[in-house]
Structure formats: C-alpha cells, structure tokens
Amino acid sequence: MAEQTSQTQTSEFRRQTAYKCNISTLNNGVFVKRQGWESSYLMTEYGDFSRTNIISVIVSKDENSITLDDGTGQITGRLFDRIERLNDIAIGDVVLIIGRPREFNNRIYLTIEIIKKIQNEWITYRKKELSLIKRVRDVSQLKGVEKKLEAEIVESASTTGSKEKILKLIIQLDKGDGASVEDVLKMSRVSNGEEILSDMMMRGEVYENKAGHVKLM
Question: In whole angstroms, what separates CA 199 from the centre of its chain?
C-alpha cells in the first residue's frame, strides 16, 4: 500500500508542469494551501501554479537561500537539501529556477528543485515568451479570492496553544541535528500533533533536515 502511495506521489510530481512566469506574477498571487497529498498552489493572473519556471539574476546569497530579481520584482529561493548546488552560483549570475511557490509570513518564496546557470541572452528571450501569454483573470479577482480565503481560515485557541507547544519542543529538542518528530509528538501529548506539524511544514515554518527530524526555518 505504501509503495502504491509512493508511486502515486511520484506520478503526480512528474505530471505537474513548471509554468513560465515572472517574479511580479508570483508576488501578486494568492497562495492556496491544501491538506494531505494534494498539491498546494499559487493562484495568479495567468493560471494556478504548483511549480514554476523563472529566469532571473541572483542579487544576494547565503548558505541555503538566494534572492532573485528579474526586473519585475524580487523573490527568495530556498534550498532544503543538496545546498552544495549553490557553490558554483555567484551574485550577478543569470539562472533558470524550477521551484514550488510557498508562503511564509504572508510572503511568497520558492523552494528550489532545479537551479542552472545560463547565458544572459535568455533574459530577453524569456521576456518575449511571457509577452505572448494571455491572462486568465484580473488582479481584482485575486484580491476577492484572498479575502474569501482569509474569512474561511478559523484557527481555534486550542490549536494555537498546541502549535506553540510543538514549536517550543522543537527548539528544546534540537541540539543541532534537528528534533525527532517521534519525540516531539510523544512529549507534546497533542491529539492532532501530526496534523499540526504537517501544516507547519507546508507553511514553511519548519522543514525536515533529515529523515524523522525537523528544524525551525
């Protein structure tokens, strides 16, 4: 059964298209979070994106993240594994990024799946490509959806307290290699702890630094 679920996830991942867009489109989008194995996505003027393909210039860099600028705006790209892929990338390089839009503190960022250094000429070519793409909705429609989604999000006081308890435990148990998920769930004694932890990972508040262990962002 587990093998079948894994195959389904892999199949879904392969089917999802990395849509070409600019950074402004991402920053103006509305993030829609889905539970379970359903893919969260970003609602934009040009469609709903679970994966994106952007070309931009690196304007800043640290150990596991970069700031990207394509002339329409800036966005952060983050790596949660194989951070050595940034070793050969420098500030000022033009890169092609395949990533998944995520949201943290009401700001959109990208989790990077693929990063590749390319020639500067591709920037002009990408602008021409994007100029041919038609909008499917107006920005005003996105704002309406955003307000509706905000109205539907009701977080109870008990859930908030449980989340704070889990956050504190992660901090206490993390001695450098991350906190054991099993220990966090056992010590928190929160009935829906697994669901809360999964939600925190989807929101980008914590990440799995190695199998069975999590760290705060």
Answer: 13
